[in-house]
Amino acid sequence: MLREMLIGKLHRGSVTECRLDYEGSLTVDQDLIDAAGMLLHQKVQVLDIDNGARIETYLIAGARGSRHIMVNGAAARLFHKGDRVIVCAYGLLDDAEARAVQPKVVLLDADNRRS
């Protein structure tokens, strides 16, 4: 049996931009992606702390050091610049891996700096 487990999380980041006219996805600073142990094009959940919106999408790379978290495409209607969000990445793990996994949690401040 495989279990879907949290493997990485960006906690309390701030949305820096919402771009409706884009194919879709979530653009995140590559440094933040790396810090949370996430991969490009990995499926993620984005949870809006301010309004309760929850979406699933995938990651694309933002410029290193930019501290961007940009919501793109149709989901841009559900989020606003400045909203606080949690970005969760999951993986399918066998039972032994699931019991041993230690998710990488990156706590962010209002400027998406690691706190």
What does this structure look like?
By secondary structure, the chain is mainly beta. It has one domain: Barwin-like endoglucanases. Helices cover 10% and strands 48% of the residues. It contains two helices and eight strands; from the N terminus they run E-E-E-H-E-E-E-E-H-E. The chain has helices spanning 30-35, 95-100; strands spanning 2-14, 17-19, 25-29, 43-48, 54-62, 69-72, 84-94, 104-107. It has an eight-stranded mixed sheet. A hairpin with a 5-residue loop joins strand 4 (43-48) and strand 5. The longest helix has 6 residues, at 30-35. It is globular. It starts with a strand and ends in an 8-residue tail after the last strand. The model has no long low-confidence stretch (mean pLDDT 97).
Kindly report the spatial arrangement of strands forming the biggest sheet: 2-6-3-5-4-7-1-8
Number of domains: 1
General shape: globular
CATH architecture: Beta Barrel
In the CATH scheme, what's the topology name? Barwin-like endoglucanases
Strand content: over 45%
Secondary structure tally: strands: 8
Q: Give the biggest sheet.
A: 8 strands, mixed
The helix-and-strand class reads mainly beta
The parts where pLDDT drops under 50 for at least 5 residues are none
Order of helices and strands: EEEHEEEEHE
Determine the N-to-C terminus distance: 36 Å
Number of H/I helices: 2
Radius of gyration: 14 Å
Mean pLDDT value: 97
- CATH class, anyone? Mainly Beta
Helix-residue proportion: 10-25%
